Hints:
Domain TRAPPC10/Trs130 N-terminal: 1-313
Largest sheet: 6 strands, mixed
Keywords: Golgi apparatus, Transport
Low-confidence stretches: 59-66, 127-135, 412-428, 1072-1080, 1082-1090
Pfam families: DUF7076, DUF7077, NTS_TR130, TRAPPC10, TRAPPC10_1st
Radius of gyration: 60 Å
Domain Trs130 NTS: 328-557
Domain DUF7077: 708-840
Amino acid sequence: xxxxxxxxxxxxxxxxxxxxxxxxxxxxxxxxxxxxxxxxxxxxxxxxxxxxxxxxxxxxxxxxxxxxxxxxxxxxxxxxxxxxxxxxxxxxxxxxxxxxxxxxxxxxxxxxxxxxxxxxxxxxxxxxxxxxxxxxxxxxxxxxxxxxxxxxxxxxxxxxxxxxxxxxxxxxxxxxxxxxxxxxxxxxxxxxxxxxxxxxxxxxxxxxxxxxxxxxxxxxxxxxxxxxxxxxxxxxxxxxxxxxxxxxxxxxxxxxxxxxxxxxxxxxxxxxxxxxxxxxxxxxxxxxxxxxxxxxxxxxxxxxxxxxxxxxxxxxxxxxxxxxxxxxxxxxxxxxxxxxxxxxxxxxxxxxxxxxxxxxxxxxxxxxxxxxxxxxxxxxxxxxxxxxxxxxxxxxxxxxxxxxxxxxxxxxxxxxxxxxxxxxxxxxxxxxxxxxxxxxxxxxxxxxxxxxxxxxxxxxxxxxxxxxxxxxxxxxxxxxxxxxxxxxxxxxxxxxxxxxxxxxxxxxxxxxxxxxxxxxxxxxxxxxxxxxxxxxxxxxxxxxxxxxxxxxxxxxxxxxxxxxxxxxxxxxxxxxxxxxxxxxxxxxxxxxxxxxxxxxxxxxxxxxxxxxxxxxxxxxxxxxxxxxxxxxxxxxxxxxxxxxxxxxxxxxxxxxxxxxxxxxxxxxxxxxxxxxxxxxxxxxxxxxxxxxxxxxxxxxxxxxxxxxxxxxxxxxxxxxxxxxxxxxxxxxxxxxxxxxxxxxxxxxxxxxxxxxxxxxxxxxxxxxxxxxxxxxxxxxxxxxxxxxxxxxxxxxxxxxxxxxxxxxxxxxxxxxxxxxxxxxxxxxxxxxxxxxxxxxxxxxxxxxxxxxxxxxxxxxxxxxxxxxxxxxxxxxxxxxxxxxxxxxxxxxxxxxxxxxxxxxxxxxxxxxxxxxxxxxxxxxxxxxxxxxxxxxxxxxxxxxxxxxxxxxxxxxxxxxxxxxxxxxxxxxxxxxxxxxxxxxxxxxxxxxxxxxxxxxxxxxxxxxxxxxxxxxxxxxxxxxxxxxxxxxxxxxxxxxxxxxxxxxxxxxxxxxxxxxxxxxxxxxxxxxxxxxxxxxxxxxxxxxxxxxxxxxxxxxxxxxxxxxxxxxxxxxxxxxxxxxxxxxxxxxxxxxxxxxxxxxxxxxxxxxxxxxxxxxxxxxxxxxxxxxxxxxxxxxxxxxxxxxxxxxxxxxxxxxxxxxxxxxxxxxxx
Length: 1214
């Protein structure tokens, strides 16, 4: 389809058209026209087609003239071709002919029309003088015509066409002529647009006046649209029709249109909707109010469709082509739906309407069939979506006609997924015979073939569905694709094509469920399940059937019961076949409620239980192989405890069952629910509190606690630690009331960089309360065996009741850590045949609680060592019970006064100090011991942490209070729980305890015990609270005697230091008396502050005496001083403000047994107590700097009294 062109009519009364029109036609169509009509933006017309035709003067008066310009189809320009030889002829006849033509063809037209006059000169422009004379004459005729007919000096409507010009002049002549034609057409077009717009505005202003004629408005508005279309401004033309359509729909909605006398409907088998706009009579029918509503809507849509098709064919890019096609397809869909609804609501036969809809869709699809090749790479999604929508509309028409014969796509008499229904839910207005006759006459040939038989209908239906699905996939319309897949799956299911149905439907139910379409999802699940069951795919059927059962609220009870029985039967079969486990949410089937307490066994068993209520809402009994509840620690989900039913469980139909679940695995701590599991064959129903349902299910916390008498595990380091011995940790296993037949102990370190050497464990056993770390006689050796394939596990044999098994295990710390995190699991079986396990996690402190610093002072005959014992950290004081430095064969030790029989408390920054005098024994230099390194001394320190003392005191008090009288039987099971809680709450001033030896606790606050009291039986709470109040108020101020198990001993090997040479230095001087005339032996009262008194400015003679000793030299290293003379230097120094030194204050000497002396004079410069000069000794050569040496300076920190030289003091008293 091509755009309508601009018409130019020429009138040739003198027969010159063959010489002129050919040149005009060769320069058509017009190109690159620019139309500027404010306020519209500049429009560019790339190509303007021109219809050039010959007009006659006789046609003028006979042409139909209408009062409304919109109905006129007049040319935009009229041209008259004139040929005249002389002025006489012009005046006699030619001028009259021109005037008649102008009057009848130009001046009488309502539509704006431009005109031009072409004067033809048949003679050549070159030749003889006579020819030139003739040309001048003819030019005067042409000038006369211009003077007569040019209506304005600015517009020259007369064109002189000369023959025989050279090519350049000829081209210029025709270029100017075509420019005049172009400008004339644009001028006429602009005037027409302005005229139409003015008329339209006038009519729109009267729209609210009763009796307003929409038909006249339509014709005028369409005239504007046609004007745009004539000059190829197709988008502007389409806008006018869209505005007409919007106005019409609004009037139709307001029910203000009255000019349609009939609805009308032409049930043609081939409607040819896209060619309806070429019917010129339609516009006259509209104006005469002689058109039906149906024909009007079809005409309006056909005009819009024609413009869209023109825009498609003239688009310059694939993207714009695709956009136009998608718009066209979308408009077609909306038009078909709206029009068919209008026809059916007005009583038209719905089957003929469906036939008409199918026909126009077929016509539109054929019109756009060739376009995909053009739009490749463009907006193909929009095009694909539009074609899919039309295909579904065509499918709906087929369904409607097939339903008339009782054929349905799903073979059930209905379509669960129908897109659009064109059938009105009311009785047909025609009889069956009339319908048959009408359909036989007007039915589309393609439709006739489709509904010829049911198989043909189903084939076409599925083909259309597949085609639409393919288009939707190209358009990325996933939901529409899923919908069509569901429809195809339903069809395949009813046709018993189960394999194909399963392939299509597999993922659809879940998709619809996530989108909130639960009913559709459940219906699809039912179909899916039936397909799987018929195919024998029981495992997959089980998953789908459970999903349907979970939707029990929207599924019939009979179907749910049937599915439940099938599921139970399949699970029983899979139990025998050992199938793979299938997990499904428990909460979707059953309602569960877990008790809020973990209960200990009432008999002497290491068992715990929880109560679980299960509601079975089905009409079927559910037999369960097992039911379990797993609890887990809240922090990090590290440790879990599993409670299980002892046997199979039957959940009665429609009732609530209360179950008690047991565990023999004891891991004391606070727990949350991790999951609840029901097992039936391979089916595992799970309620996961920390998985996919985390944060959705309400959780609860429960405490598992040990009761006195049960298996217990304690961890500690050795009570006596020797720093040079391998590091060990002790695992104490208290059997309690259990007669252990066999036990496995697994120990693992959770600290990075540490490792427990379980394979080197040593074992011992003793009766409960009879053994101490120091009382080795009370323990008996116990055989410990390794377990193959388990390097962290050892095995021990039978152990009796009320016994303690000691397993001492070395550990290796590759990094410096203060605490050792250990997890110990004891798995044991008893004489009753039961198997149990206990797991504990403890922090074992491996860092020393005290620090020891030593300060050594060398003397020529002895070594004085001062040991300072301080606590590590700022909050844990220590009680030092004793400190002993044990002598050996090489050394004798004296001192340590006050270290035995009395204890001292070491506070932060307040260490406990012990001093010792160390001398070499007589056998130190014995020949047989000279080559052997000296033995170290052993410093043994016994101590206790004050915190341990208080914890033990409080624990003993709790035990005694609970054991008193009537409480023991009922409350003993809470003893360990109360101990742990009160120790966790304990806030005691350790410093006050260290000074006063009294434990001071605050008052009892019930809020601090709420978490513990909540898990105590209600009957026991009051009694337990009474005990707690007694503990707080009657806590003994004086702690009872601390048990020896709290005392730790640290043994430190002390290497006695050695030096190769010891220098003894001494300053010798004589004190001077206060009075030179005093006796030689003055009384003590004659001296002030010191017995060494001197005067300022008086020199003091001194002697520096230096001796050396090699008595502290290592015995196993040769004496270098006996083989060579090694020289040292001395340097006497003093503060320049206090002393002047005269003499050889620096010098050298050789190490020997002789005494070296130097005489010096020192002069005090000020009075007061002045420190004596210091003396430094160092090797004279750098080669001897490696020699170890110590200096004993006897005058270190010694001062002398220096007095001012004053003989008399005068005092004046007033």
